[in-house]
Predict the structure.
Amino acid sequence: METFPFHTLSTSCRHGLPHANITTRLREAIANWNTHLQGIKDPDDVFRQERARISDTSKKRIEEFYLNTLRDNDNNNNNDNVALLLRTLLSDGQQMKELEMEHEVTRTKKQELQDEVAKSVGRRIVADVIDILGLSAEQHLMPAVPPPPEEATSTTKDHVDSASLPVPDDSDAPAATMGLTTRTRSYNNGRMAEPVRRWRHR
């Protein structure tokens, strides 16, 4: 698929004159985008157009044969014209068959190429908009990222709160120098006792 380079600078910019106003630059950019977008042909559309062209050619051959037959009463010429018509119609049919086979084989690849060209045009459009309106204006056009749901925030906060260490009851011990240790005692029968918490000074 043939592509062409973009030329998005305004006429005044190319000739070293002051920058054109935003409206003029947008109009020039839009005209440029439209030119390149029109050059992108969908493979299915191209196939249908070519098939219609072959079909129209066959119809014209039949119409010409009919008109010539009405004007010419020579049977020999008519026989020759019939043979010629049949050959040309068979050729049109063969061309139609080859077109369908070629489209079936190459359609996916042509679609991929078309998408790549369309993406290239899209990137050029974004770059032109940023160049004309400025990056800050482009950022205002982009949707804001939504904040996390309230439930997710609440769940995270509850998890952090539940993981916090309890405040010791011993008011005489300095809070900044105390650490919590836990020991587990077992009885002779193997049953586990409740953890015993002891406060130690560091």
Summary: The chain has a mean pLDDT of 73. The chain has six helices and two strands. The CA atoms of residues 184 and 194 lie 7 Å apart. The helical segments are 11-14, 22-38, 43-71, 75-133, 135-141, 150-162.
